[in-house]
Amino acid sequence: MPDLEKLRALAKETISRDDIKCLIGWRPGTYGYRTSPHFVRSPEDADQLIFSPLCSSNLATYLTLAEKRPVPRGAQPDTRKVAILVKGCDSRAVVQQVAEQGIKREAVYVIGCPCEGIIDLRKLEDKYPHTLERVEARWENGKISLDLPGGRAVFPREEIVAGKCLTCRYPNPVIADVTVGEDVEVRGSAGFEDINWLEVKNAQERWAFWRDKVNSCLRCYSCRNVCPMCYCEECILEKQNPAWIQRSVNISENTAFQLARAFHLAGRCIECGECERVCPVEIPLTHLNRKLVKEVSEQFAFTPGVDPEAKPLLVGYRPNDKEDFIL
Amino acid sequence: MSSKPKIGVYICHCGINIAKTVDVEELTRYAVKLPNVRVARDYSYMCSDPGQLMIREDIRKNGLNRVVVASCSPRMHELTFRKALVEAGLNPYYLEIANIREHCSWVHKDKQEATAKAKKLLQAAVAKVRFLEPLQEKEVDVEASALIIGGGIAGIQASLDIANAGFKVYLVEKTPSIGGRMSQLDKTFPTLDCSACILTPKMVDAASHPNITLLTYSQVESITGYVGNFQVKVRKKARYVDFSKCTGCGLCAEECRLADRVKSEFNMGIGNRSAIYLPFPQAVPAKYTVDPHSCLFLTRGKCGKSPKCVEACPAGAVDFEQKDEIVEFKTGTVIVATGFDVFDAARKPEYGYSDYDNVLTGLEMERLISSSGPTGGKLVLGKGDGEYVPKEIAFIKCVGSRDKSTGNEYCSRVCCMYTAKLAHLVKDKLPEANVRIYYMDVRAFGKGFEEFYDRVRREGVRYIRGNPSEIFKRNGKLVIMVEDTLTAKPLEDEVDMVVLAVGLEPRRDAREVIDLLRLSQSSDRFFLEAHPKLAPVDTATEGVYLAGCAQGPKDIPDTVAQAKGAASSALVLLSSGKVKVQAQISWVNEATCRGCGYCVEICPYTAIELVSVNKMGHEVNVARVNEALCKGCGACAAGCLSGSVQQKSFMDSQILPQIAALGGKS
After folding, report:
1. pTM for this predicted structure
2. Is there a contact between B425 and B185 (Cβ–Cβ < 8 Å)?
3. Which residues contact A181 (CB under 8 A, 6 or more apart)?
């Protein structure tokens, strides 16, 4: 658990640098368990920064979202760096963005925050619904403690963290210019036991499962918007001419939408689980992505988002690549 | 074109190829009703003159601006119909072919179903053709020279043909001398010409030809560019001998401290050479080379007080300061003639090649029996006091060929005949010797081959049909365990010597050549030709041709014939001086491109690069296509996540209506 004072001091020092224009971190949200992204532009802003088990959002998304406003004639674009706080999973997003030239490595200043797991708010809300007062949380000796309105509560980590944190192999940032706090123990295994229950089903059963889930999709595009790997200037899923996917919300278009998204993430998904977290109808998108992560790992021994120098999977060819999937 | 599409549909019977299975009249009646179709006709052979005339007249009279031909594969007649469009004054890329032969009539039996499918295919083509855009074909100049990779008989022959036609040739050979495998052979089947005697004049011709630049002991480092304009970088490895001074006298090799102590590659390790060496007496160029892997001075930095070769050379040619040199030049065309390696007999451990000195490969036998070989052509085994003349000699065929256990399913095509030839030479030198050949089949398919096989049998060579299972040593003799499959009797054959007729394999460093030129391999791992029948010397890369065993096992006549074919193809390009580049190439929408560079990495022709552009004051990268390099394969378009790369004539906006038409009701 990082010392917040140290974190804020580091942030102040960082934002005071001439070559840094903004620092992206987290701050407490407006109520309950919520936290918000926080854009630090001055040393004073840094006082609100936090890092806790409630800081679920993957801030790497904002790196590519930054709008490139037209530069007035005669003026120079602001090419200063953006500093960003990253958990282990978030850092993989940064690495993958660098690997596929979405951002330049020298354009970001990465502040690594080793992470012991993020609280799954759905699990917490099941236990303590409708909490309006701001709640603070912290990691303590492998457990997570919460200052709830009714007093302090302590949970074993496994009981309350998100599913993605239980299988996490990268709790410590894979790249960082500076790190806040000590590295933490890697608890996740390299296996894919978490999707085994779904894989053992036959095709009809799996389709029944997914049909039910996809049928409820509202096509709100939250999963796409929050995904740190979705940053095309014009998303193919929204193109109208030609329209690969119609806007109508029905099982056919919804399925095409989710499948296209999954395929576009093959070999790129860094398993931050943000898509599933933000889905208002709770489609278990992690299962879809984890299946592709598994295929990519087993077929090509490839893990995205760990080496910024590595060629992205889909453009790297090795003569000994498996070909048995070609009919 | 802004004007409304006016489509003509032409349905071919292809004699009865299509008409037998597809109701062409019904298809024509259906076509007229499709949107924007002005006229639909059927005809027995649309590709014939009257068929094409029909299209041209309709374009002129009915003002058609789009044409759909429902016929065979576009690979057959797309060009034919494009020409017809041009003759009628229409852009050739306003044509769409619906393949109702290969995709329909040839693969279906039920006429009703086939007709329904043909309707779908036609409907899809009509849906697409409306969105096609006119394209312009561009031409680029061809650099009037050729690069030949590999200085064996194939490379030499191709070089000579191109040079004789008046074009410049760069012949690059990896080893110190040209000549290749053919120079290692003793006699050639079936005529028993001395291999060296017929080869060396060609080697000398190549070396002295004013149009040929010989780059021996050199390797191609990189080839960039495209048909007509390849930029080539060649590494001339340091020979440590000044080329201009060396007279080839050989005093250096005699004096070398390692004289006769380094295994000779040319003699397949049977004979020895010095660390400074000429690979073989007739080597071209006749210049010495220091082997950097064995030379004491180069490996240890010290050779006595001073290297003896330096002292011995009267011309002062030995120069240990020499460095690798990079030579750069441009060529219009490339011929790959990198040859083959023989199968490593150690991969068939049951034949004891690694264990017994008297188990030899065919190529080793060539050197042993050659009058220019290490024994001066005496067929003796063992060394010094242990020297003996073998009396019982067995050949085993198909070692590493036609053998799935070695991964080589193919027939190496030369082993049957070289075995017969070697058996003949053995009988010639040792008339008393008993020679038998263990075989699976005898394939004597070439001119004069069967006659030669017959002659060898008449000379007393016994052919025993059987594939030996094991060879081991007993009482100083080799014992071959084999079943004679014609009499179904197991045999234990005691012999003095076994020759394994090893097959031909792709060069072990073929991967480097593949990476240089982005060649493909067939399932046998040899380089893949563009078409097994109609383009046997071409590759998928325009301007790059194949010759000799690099493309597949073949004998000398076939190799020379293919080399001449490759030279002729190269000459067509060189003498025309211009080459048309693809019009259906990729195109990048720079507004939506986010510069990820996927397409750059995916492109097999290095036709796309990232360039920095100014987007409203921000310097950003976008992909840009080199129109001369792009072959229109579409890999980039498939790989682009945002759909920013599009292939002309196959744009999303063109193929989606086509796909939608296939999905809808007809």
Report:
1. 0.72
2. no
3. A1, A2, A3, A113, A114
Distance CA A201, CA A287 (A): 14
Taking chain A, what is the end-to-end CA distance rounded to the nearest angstrom? 51
Closest CB from A70, A242, A314 relative to B616 = A70
The full set of domains in chain B, from first to last, is 7-135 (3.40.50.960), 145-237+324-339+507-578 (3.50.50.60), 251-312 (no CATH), 344-505 (3.50.50.60), 586-648 (3.30.70.20)
Q: What is the C-alpha to C-alpha distance for residues B580 and B138, in angstroms, rounded to an integer?
A: 6
**Which residue is associated with the tokens 């020379």?**
B560
CA atoms of B414 and B189, how far apart (whole Å)? 9
ipTM of the modeled complex: 0.89
Structural tokens at position B47 = 């590709």
Burial B163-189 (b: 16+ CB within 10 A, else e): bebebbbbbbbbbbbbbbbbbbbbbbb
Which residues are registered as beta bridge partners of B437? B395, B463
Nearest to A77 among B594, B618, B621 (CB): B618
CB contact under 8 A, A242 and B656: yes
pLDDT per residue as tens digits for the range B305-362: 899 999 999 999 999 999 999 999 999 999 999 999 999 999 999 999 999 999 999 9
Residue B418 in tokens: 């070289």
Chain B nearest CA to A70, separation (Å): 5
- Distance, CA of B447 to CA of A19 (rounded, Å): 79
H or E element in which residue B576 lies: helix B556-576
Cα–Cα distance measured from residue B599 to residue A315, given in angstroms and rounded to the nearest whole number: 8
3 state DSSP class of B482: strand
Give me the pLDDT at residue A322, please: 82
Whether chain A has a CB inside 8 Å of the CB on B604: the answer is no
What are the tens digits of pLDDT across the range A101-134?
Answer: 999 999 999 999 999 999 999 999 999 988 899 9
Alpha carbon distance A183, A112 (integer Å): 10
pLDDT per residue as tens digits for the range A206-258? 999 999 999 999 999 999 999 999 998 888 888 888 888 988 999 999 999 99
Q: Give me B586's structure tokens.
A: 């990729």
Q: Residue B6 corresponds to which amino acid?
A: K
Compute the nearest-CA separation of A12 from chain B (Å): 28
Residues of A in contact with B661 (CB under 8 A): none
CB B337 within 8 A of CB B547: yes
